[in-house]
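A reminder from the course coordinator: this example appears on the midterm review sheet, so study it carefully.

Given structure:
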C-alpha cells in the first residue's frame, strides 16, 4: 500500500499544475480559457441616418473582438450587426471603442448592446446598459433677417426648407431690431430656449423639460445652441455657426422626426405630451412689433 500512496501524492500536484498551465498564457500569466468581462459604459450618439455606438473595453488583454448587437425591442431580439477588432492592451489601460451603424432609418428607435470575445472564442454576456437611439435628419441653412429678405427668413424643420417668415409653415424665423439679430418662434404654440455656448453641435443631447422663453424670441449669438419645441410636438435644435457681414445667419440644425421624442443626440426615458391648455403660454406672439 505504501508505494501506491506515494504515487498518488506525486500525481496530485502534477495534475494541479497541468490544469493551471492549460488556463494561462506562459508569457503574461493571463487567463484565456474563460468568458471575458462584458463591455461597460455603452452609449449612443444620434446622427442623420446613422447611430454611433461607444463603449469602454474591459481591463483585459485576452479580448480580440467585440460584437455589436441591435434590436427593435429593449429586452429581446438582439442580433449581431458587426464585429470590431480589439486593440492589444498589455498595460490594461482604458480603451474606448466605437462603431457607426448607418443601416438605420430616421425616426425609428434602435436598441444596442456589445459583447466581448476572447482569444479562446469565449463570449461575454451582452452589455448591461440600456443604450438606444432614434436617428434624425440634420443639416445647415443660411437665413436672412426678414428686413433683408422676408422670403428667406423662415425655416421649416420637417421639410428642411426656407420659407417666408410669415408662412404658416415656418417654425422659426430671423429678424433684426436696433442692430441686434433675433431668432423667433414663428407662432404662439412653438417654444424656444437658449442653451448657451456649446463647443460642438452634439454638446446638447436632449431637449429640456422646462425653461422655455416666455417672449418667444432670443438674441442670436455665435456658438450658441437653441432648442425648438414645434407646435406639432417635435423637437429640434440649431447652433449658430456664423453671423455674416451681409446680415445672413448660418445655422446648423437637427430635427427629431419621432413625435414627442426629446432625444437629439442621446437616449432619454421620456416621451413628452403635446402642447396642452395647461402648458406655459407666451404672453405675446412670437412676432415682435418693431417700432
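Designed residues:
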Amino acid at each position: 500500500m505504501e508505494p501506491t500512496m506515494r504515487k498518488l501524492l506525486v500525481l496530485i500536484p502534477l495534475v494541479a499544475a497541468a490544469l493551471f498551465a492549460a488556463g494561462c498564457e506562459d508569457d503574461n500569466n493571463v487567463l484565456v480559457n474563460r468568458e471575458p468581462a462584458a463591455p461597460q459604459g455603452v452609449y449612443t450618439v444620434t446622427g442623420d441616418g446613422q447611430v454611433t455606438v461607444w463603449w469602454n473595453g474591459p481591463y483585459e488583454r485576452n479580448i480580440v473582438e467585440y460584437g455589436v448587437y441591435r434590436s427593435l425591442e429593449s429586452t429581446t431580439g438582439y442580433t449581431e450587426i458587426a464585429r470590431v477588432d480589439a486593440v492589444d492592451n498589455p498595460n490594461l489601460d482604458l480603451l474606448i471603442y466605437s462603431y457607426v451603424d448607418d443601416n438605420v432609418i430616421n425616426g425609428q428607435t434602435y436598441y444596442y448592446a456589445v459583447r466581448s470575445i476572447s482569444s479562446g472564442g469565449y463570449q461575454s454576456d451582452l452589455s448591461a446598459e440600456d443604450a438606444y437611439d432614434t436617428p434624425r435628419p440634420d443639416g445647415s441653412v443660411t437665413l436672412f433677417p426678414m428686413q433683408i429678405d422676408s422670403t428667406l427668413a423662415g425655416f421649416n424643420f420637417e421639410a428642411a426648407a426656407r420659407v417666408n417668415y410669415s408662412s404658416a409653415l415656418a417654425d422659426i424665423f430671423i429678424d433684426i431690431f436696433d442692430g441686434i439679430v433675433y431668432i423667433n418662434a414663428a407662432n404662439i404654440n412653438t417654444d424656444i430656449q437658449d442653451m448657451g455656448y456649446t463647443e460642438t453641435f452634439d454638446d446638447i443631447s436632449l431637449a429640456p423639460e422646462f425653461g422655455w422663453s416666455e417672449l418667444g424670441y432670443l438674441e442670436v449669438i455665435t456658438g450658441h445652441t437653441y432648442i425648438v419645441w414645434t407646435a406639432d410636438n417635435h423637437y429640434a435644435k440649431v447652433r449658430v455657426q456664423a453671423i455674416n457681414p451681409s446680415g445672413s445667419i448660418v445655422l446648423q440644425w437637427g430635427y427629431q422626426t419621432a413625435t414627442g421624442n426629446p432625444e437629439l443626440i442621446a437616449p432619454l426615458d421620456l416621451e413628452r405630451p403635446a402642447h396642452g391648455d395647461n402648458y406655459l403660454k407666451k404672453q405675446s406672439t412670437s412676432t415682435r412689433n418693431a417700432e
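The chain is about 5% helix and 35% strand. Residues 1-27, 266-291 have pLDDT under 50 and may be disordered.
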